[in-house]
């Protein structure tokens, strides 16, 4: 595995198809000591062109849910299971997930967050190391082992799920509120008290 430069991978050619389809490596963004880390699947077209995770429509959904609980994007860290855009936005393959795993583990170990929120099926299964029914399990917390350490993980829907199915929007927002609460950041249950302020 190529060395990481802090939390960033500068050069990697382990996945031939991804080297072909990417225009750059998309590293995680946000504070290097964030309490809350969001984990997506892989960069899409927007992320590949801008070099930052979740900057397309899914990113707007995430940003807006964060705002609702008093958090800005800059308050959290956002990263992906795989750092290079798969061709035609297909799911990352098993070996590609495995090739990028060490980078993710290093990033999580170095950031040492209170909570990692997995956004969707692929990242939830990758993080938890088991099959996950995301809709059913959304909002559940469990501890997972990353090498020698244990890290707290929370299953969440992928933000894009709210774009195709409006009924998922509420669930998504509830899970983000729970994430802020578990990580001890944002307004916690401040939604109610801030209503009372007006
Ligand atoms: N979806 C993801 O899973 N990751 C991104 O970075 C953007 C969209």
TrEMBL record:
Q: What EC class does the entry list?
A: hydrolase
- Uracil-DNA glycosylase-like domain spans which residues? 27-177
The catalytic activity of this protein is classed by the Enzyme Commission as 3.2.2.27
Q: Which catalysed reactions does the entry list for this protein? A: Hydrolyzes single-stranded DNA or mismatched double-stranded DNA and polynucleotides, releasing free uracil
A biological process term (GO) from this entry: DNA repair
Q: What are the recorded GO MF terms, alphabetically?
A: 4 iron, 4 sulfur cluster binding; metal ion binding; uracil DNA N-glycosylase activity
Q: Which domain of life is it from?
A: Archaea
Record keywords, A-Z:
4Fe-4S, DNA damage, DNA repair, Hydrolase, Iron, Iron-sulfur, Metal-binding
> Which family does the record claim for this protein?
Belongs to the uracil-DNA glycosylase (UDG) superfamily. Type 4 (UDGa) family.
Protein's recorded name? Type-4 uracil-DNA glycosylase
